[in-house]
Write a structure and sequence with these properties.
CATH topology of the largest domain: GIY-YIG endonuclease
Largest sheet: 5 strands, antiparallel
Number of strands: 11
Number of helices: 4
Order of helices and strands: EEHEEHEEEEHEEEH
CATH architecture of the largest domain: 3-Layer(aba) Sandwich
Number of domains: 2
Distance between the termini: 52 Å
CATH class of the largest domain: Alpha Beta
Shape: globular
Strand content: 15-25%
Helix content: 10-25%
Radius of gyration: 19 Å
Length: about 180
């Protein structure tokens, strides 16, 4: 039986049947621990769910690449259990990343110009009636939001650029116009 060829190369080399695991995602060579949700299908890579480490890595890469002098990546904030604590970088402009309970990326957003990260995150979450935990304001999330990481920047005009960079590199599942 003869192998099928596409443009002179074996079909198998173009369409692998084994999954591409996220430790080496298609087109990237960085340490990450995202979870694979698909495999290469007809030459088009399916979405890979990104992790906390992926967000931190790309934020640091952005800062180094574009010479951001002051950027503070906050600790991971548990919305359900740390609600009475202050948001990391709450008084700064910047970006935030929202994760599900498995710490997989759902959404990247920004707070710029007259907004701070605390004001922007208040659009997504509110306090429970007892005041002890955070509750999601909107429906429509692909998975329930559970954790947040904030990335504070020095100047408000840096936030939209950082947000666009993170969305482009990480392709969050819920960053779709009109979804959230």
């Amino acid at each position: 039986m003869q192998k099928q060829h596409v443009f002179g190369k074996a079909l198998k080399s173009y369409f692998p049947t084994t999954p591409l695991y996220s430790s080496q995602p298609l087109g990237y060579n960085y340490p990450g621990n995202a979870i694979l949700v698909g495999e290469l299908n007809m030459g088009i890579a399916t979405k890979t769910r990104r992790s906390v480490n992926d967000v931190r890595y790309h934020a640091r890469t952005y800062a180094k690449r574009y010479g951001l002098k002051k950027m503070n990546i906050g600790r991971i904030y548990d919305i359900k259990n740390n609600w009475q604590d202050t948001w990391p970088n709450c008084d700064s402009p910047g970006c935030y990343a929202i994760f599900d309970k498995n710490k997989l990326l759902l959404y990247v957003g920004k707070a710029s110009h007259s907004n701070t990260l605390a004001l922007r995150l208040a659009c997504h979450f509110r306090c429970s009636k007892t005041g002890s935990k955070g509750i999601v304001r909107q429906s429509g999330w692909s998975h329930a939001p559970w954790y947040v990481i904030t990335i504070g920047v020095d100047k408000a005009h840096e936030a939209p650029s950082l947000e666009e960079y993170l969305i482009t590199k990480l392709n969050p599942s819920d960053n779709i116009n009109g979804k959230i």
